[in-house]
Amino acid sequence: MPVHTRIFMRLAILLLLFYLMIAWQISGAIQVVFSDYLTESRVVSLTLISGLILLPVIVALSYARGKADTLFLRRPDITIKDYFLTFPFWMGLVWVAEMLPWIVLIFLLSGLFKLLPLIRPEFWLEIKSYALLVLAAFYLLYVPFRAIRDTWRVRLKTLTAQIPGLPAALQKLRLVFVSDLHVDRYTQQSKLQKMQQHVAKFGGDLLLFGGDIVSAGEYYIQQAVTEMCSTTSKQAHIAVMGDHDVWANPERIARGLHSGGFHFLQDEHHLVEYDNCQILITGVTYIYHQKPDKAEITTLMESAPDADLKILLAHQPGRLLIELAAKYGYHLFLAGHTHGGQLLFRPLGYPYAFARWEGKFYRGLYEIRDMLLFVTNGVGLTMAPIRYQAPAEVVGIEFRGK
User: Fold this and answer.
1) What CATH number is given to the structural domain containing 390?
2) Are 163 and 402 in contact (CB under 8 A)?
3) In this predicted structure, what is the pLDDT of residue 281?
């Protein structure tokens, strides 16, 4: 059983425990508010849990019977089973993640009110029960709505990079940044067309790609390369390697992008002339499989030619790379990898994503001394086949002096 499948199965077991705990809490709330419907509510809850947890059961049985290769999740296109099993499973996970902090808060408040009798117990029980039911109903509606919206749409995110001492000629420059395309069974033509439309609409002079053109294997490489090379810019197309590119076929991906007009940079510099000004793009291969050390990055940056605008392009926004880029006078650092969290939760209003385990720079714009760092949400998906509060995006950047 592959590593990602083992992780998925462990997650499913944990999710089942949380489902049962939340169902028990909600059943208690229903008993208080709608005492006549307690039995019906328990039947409905158990039926829903059984449906939401059916996907990992099917996966486990397929592996146990030696038929994992025939599993519908291995098909190249989405099937009707995905709509009834795959997507509901992941939306259920998001629903649990949103509900848990509130349940913990209510539990803590219950303990507090037992120690400090500020509210009559029967009154607090009624408030708690209504609160649980309202929250459960709200997230049952909000999570699918937001997940569908964020998974299938692609937004054009525009931002203005204010660069100290930027020449007037470069203040007309427009740059498009795309990353983490992840072409696979979930990221297909409709989404790729939206990406291309946004690139064309912004009309960039430069197009930079931050890696991860496919999710896995070689099946989608030709399609992904063709779609990426169909995007246009006036001056140059530049790309770097991503983690999933290495796991798929790095030579074939680099060769395909190069044939399609991209400069594929692997720890290299590339100069672009724009209106009598020099723009430096330094492309660094910074991925799990290959992370240059401090000495190697320092040597690369010290060898950089002079330029009016210095841009660093890498797949992962590694802390060492960020620190050295700022030290060596880069004006802008563009990265992807994190998908903006992909599943971004806001427990009690505080934003949290699993991507934060890798570092605090996981989405949006940051200012590091005189350098701007932008980490994009990207376009495609990994592990989970949905997005939540981290919509796919194409980034359009304009430049201004400061």
Assistant:
1) 3.60.21.10
2) yes
3) 97
Per-residue confidence (pLDDT) for residue 115, from 0 to 100 = 77
Residues with Cβ within 8 Å of 158's Cβ and at least 6 positions away in sequence, in order, are 202, 395, 396, 397, 398
Q: Do 167 and 277 sit in the same domain of this protein?
A: yes
Helix (H) or strand (E) holding 146: helix 121-152
For strands 174-178 and 364-368, give the pairing: unpaired
- Same domain assignment for residues 216 and 67: no
Find, among 220, 267, 221, the residue nearest to 240 by Cα: 267
The three-class DSSP label of residue 1 is coil
Cβ contact 75:116 at 8 Å: no
Whether residue 114 is found in the same domain as residue 194: no
State how far the Cα of 83 lies from the Cα of 377, in Å rounded to an integer: 24
Asked whether residue 195 falls in the same domain as residue 318, the answer is: yes
Residue 123 shares a structural domain with residue 172: no
Q: Which of these, 373, 372, 371, lies nearest to 363 by C-alpha position?
A: 373
Cross-sheet strand order for the sheet of 206-209: 154-163, 392-401, 174-178, 206-209, 236-239, 262-264
Hunting for tokens 């992904």 — which residue is that? 224
Within the chain, which residues score under 50 in pLDDT?
none
Taking the CA atoms of residue 103, residue 109, residue 110 and residue 113 in that order, the dihedral angle to the nearest 10 degrees is -170
Which of the listed residues 93, 126, 150 is the one where a domain comes to its end? 150
* Ordered strands of the 268-274 beta sheet: 268-274, 277-284, 309-314, 332-335, 371-375, 364-368
| Alpha carbon separation from 45 to 52, 92, 137 (Å, rounded) | 11, 13, 13
- Enter the pTM of the model: 0.91
Distance from the Cα of residue 390 to its chain's centroid = 6
The total number of structural domains in the chain stands at 2
Identify whether residues 64 and 213 lie together within a single domain: no
Give the residue from 133, 150, 167 where a domain finishes. Answer: 150
Q: Give me the residue label for tokens 């204010």.
A: 162
The answer to whether residues 121 and 64 belong to one domain is yes
- Residues 256 and 329 reside in one and the same domain: yes
How many of the other CB atoms lie within 10 Å of CB of 241?
A: 28
**Average pLDDT for the chain:** 91
Torsion of CA 212, 217, 220, 221, to 10 degrees: 60
Segments forming the whole domain that contains residue 244: 155-401
401 vs 214: CA distance, rounded Å: 37
